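Troubleshooting: if your tokenizer reports a length mismatch, compare your output against this known-good record of 273 residues.
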Amino acid sequence: MTRKELTEQIFTKKSFLCVGLDTDTKKIPQHLMEEEDPVFAFNKAIIDATAPYCVAYKPNLAFYEASGIKGMIAFEKTVEYLKKDYPDHFIIADAKRGDIGNTSAMYARTFFEEYDIDALTVAPYMGEDSITPFLGYEDKWVIVLALTSNKGSFDFQLTEGGNREKLFEKVLRKTQEWGNENNMMFVVGATQGRMFENVRRIAPNSFLLVPGIGAQGGSLEEVCRFGMTADCGLLVNSSRGIIYASSDKDFAEAAARNARELQKQMEAELLKL
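Known-good structure output:
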């Protein structure tokens, strides 16, 4: 999906919501465990309920790999369902891959050729040759971890070098030498608040994938105030706050209500542009 196509979806649907499919068999409604594929049954119901209110879905690979081959079959079925029934939705594999060049090339082949998804989260720690193999695919996106929402982000990301440049700032500057605004996004956690000003100083027009809204306490209004661009430039992710809104048989309806509530807040923010 191109940047133009993604932006058109955002303004058509008046939403920049990404629904995280962090599907845990220990948390999904127990009546679904009677299904042949409980994870896919849950995902399908969540997707059908929330599709009108979001522009993207983000399955987190850890939740599928934890169930071995069964989990990966559920992941593949979820991707196929989205591509067939909701082809206008942006699909992000949250896999946080990143390794030496030839290994990264295999990861890129897996997600961009085999699964044909739109975007993949990538860890930048190993440098240029770990990221550039992902950038050779037309209309595919690399989403680089820059400033995350977990408390451990202080351990490395916010440390300063000799020129007082924080590590996440160096990541933002350096990676833009390899990619551009049409094939590279950055993960910036919603809990980082006014740090979005620093991010936008270095990456003024790049799309940002923003986790941490809802269950993790991030403020949508603050993210938009400091992070929004003329064409929005944001994909704000909510996982637990939507998909686990209910653990009963009304789980899909509850997910739809929470997604719709976020979409309405996003519509109000877009009207400020």
